[in-house]
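Form 12-C: Joint structure prediction
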Amino acid sequence: MSTHTQRVVVAMSGGVDSSVAAALLVEQGYEVIGIMLRLWSEPGLEAFNRCCTPESMALARRVAAHLGIPFYALDVRGVFRETIVQFFIDGYAQGITPNPCGQCNRHIRFGSLLQYALSLEADFLATGHYARLRQDQQGRYQLLRATDRSKDQSYVLSVLNQAQLARALFPIGEFPKSEVRALAARFGLPVAQRSDSQDLCFLAGGDYRDFLRRNAPHTAVPGPIQTRSGKVLGEHQGLAFYTIGQRKGLGIAATQPLYVLDKDPHTNTLIVGSRDELGRDELLASGVNWIAGQPPPGPVRAQVKIRYRAREAWGTVTPLGPDKAHVQFDAPLRDITPGQLAVFYDGEVVLGSGTIMMPPRNEAPLDKA
Amino acid sequence: MEKIYLDYAATTPVDERVLEAMLPFFGQTFGNPSSVHTFGQRAEAAVETARERMAALLNCQSKELIFTSCGSESDNLALRGVAFARREKNGANHILISPVEHHAVSVTAEQLARLHGFELEFLPVDEHGMVDPDDLAARIREDTALVSVIFANNEIGTINAIAALGAVCQARGVPFHSDAVQAAAHLRLDVQALNVDLLSLGAHKFYGPKGVGALYVRSGTPIVPIQTGGGQEFGLRAGTSNVPYIVGMAQAFELAQRDSNGDPAGLAALRDHLIGCVLETIPDARLTGHPSRRLSNHASFVFKGVDGNALLTMLDVAGFACSSGSACKTGLPEPSEVLTAIGLPREWALGSLRVTLGRQTTAGEVEAFLNRLPELVSRARKA
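Section 2 - Result
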């Protein structure tokens, strides 16, 4: 057994989760280095970003000083703007609803930051995510949900591969949130009193719609609202501002409630319909990441989350080649949204995830109630 | 592993002899020098002795030496104090500085322009950051309020021809200020020989404590105080004297100036060895600043395509403390104005590294550094 002290880089944000993660690793005897990412923010709005304000960096620095660990900042503004913010804007321009957090974990946190950590001769990169890791009997890494289901962030970590998981540590995944706060107090950590926000980190506390209006006006072009049969009912303000399954805010007077069924980016049309028309019981996912390193040999039963905050739905996942998958749900869902991650769970274990594709253009509507 | 300090240009440890000189003035001789009673008198005597010692070394009169809280404050007093006085007295509205000044000079000058209507002009510099006295002569005007050129550059080590520049200003009757904060530890400072009217010093660069500095102000120079209140420092800088620190600074200055005639620590040779090795073993590396007219302990480089911030972090993790003209603690590296002013393209300027030696540096430390640096530069080099 090696007696070499293992070196860990902790991705710090100044928030309580990453601060407690760092404190736990110090207590466990690792040689810990704290690094904070300097992400992109709109010029002039740096102080309002949810994450990575100068204030939060000062707080992270104090936590590091309290723990007696070195602290450095890493500038990834350029690559973040190019790979994450642009990805976000491009997604909306294509009529889908992108999830940038998955991209960020794959390319920035466990991409750029992991590379940097390895260049500092660290053995691991740790984060304050609520998730757990295990190794199976063959030594392959498994990603598990956090003990505290209500805080579980395995959804956004489902994009990681074996090489990345082999270098990852998630120290707080075993604890419920309440205990993490108690640990912060026990360690005497200076932490912000504000509660965690679930908004996108680069939105500066504003609405994503305002962000798109300012930074991607081409996604905010009005167009027709139509039924599936082509009847024009009104005008939408830009496809980006509506979500699948949305009922309110359409600005149409109708005898029965209307729901957003679909978006057609080619004709810039928002397609709406009645409750009966809502609901699909299958999806196709692309860019599938199987955590184990390859797809299962055949269809598997899984609980599938189609959005970070969605409840899991049972279905059968069938791999189609190395990077696509088909999901047949047991029951229809109202809000399957192209661009979001569909994450496949087998109990506590994350099997993998893929990006939900747009349905084929001339798909016949369901006649299921 | 013990960390190795190679950032003496940033700050220096307080010399034991300096600390010893300071201690009696915290508890024993603690009086306020402005007080009438003997507690005050003793403290005042200590301050005035310190003033005399430093003035003698600087070759000026006691009353021409003002104590401040740091080199930056001295720069602020020199720039603002003289600019406002010269405008009031002579209608002078024009300020000339080099583009390679410390921020305490450049930011102050920029504020004078932006908020107080002064016209700020930058002198040209060559690729080593040197100002040509002929360029100064061509740009100095009837309405120039003052000229400020840094003596020894903190980022790139270049030593400017201060005496020649001072002579130009003298001939034209314009006050000449030089920031000598970096120079004090290594160069003989004789204000008469240097032809300066104002000279800034900061103790923590010459093995004195942080929190105290000084400004030489030639008698007859128009100047108004910028920190006003009680009449301390001949009415030019209000505030109760920081007695122990002033005593410490004088002691440190004496030790530094006594040593600056030779190079007793042999730093120049060690530094030259370091420069030679780096330029030989690392591809796409350049020395910044003048190759020979440079501070004896100072080595500064730029490495093409290197992330300067990443390099400093790697060096620190590997046990070597250095600095750079383009790194920033908050992770927003921008190339420094100095490196841009000497004409370095961004790709080079972002990869700067400053290595400065000091009294405690050993040949072994330099060897250890030279052994690790090539590999770290290579890692910090973008693909």
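Section 3 - Comments
Residues 364-369 of chain A have pLDDT under 50 and may be disordered. Chain A has three domains: 7-203, 221-274, 280-356.
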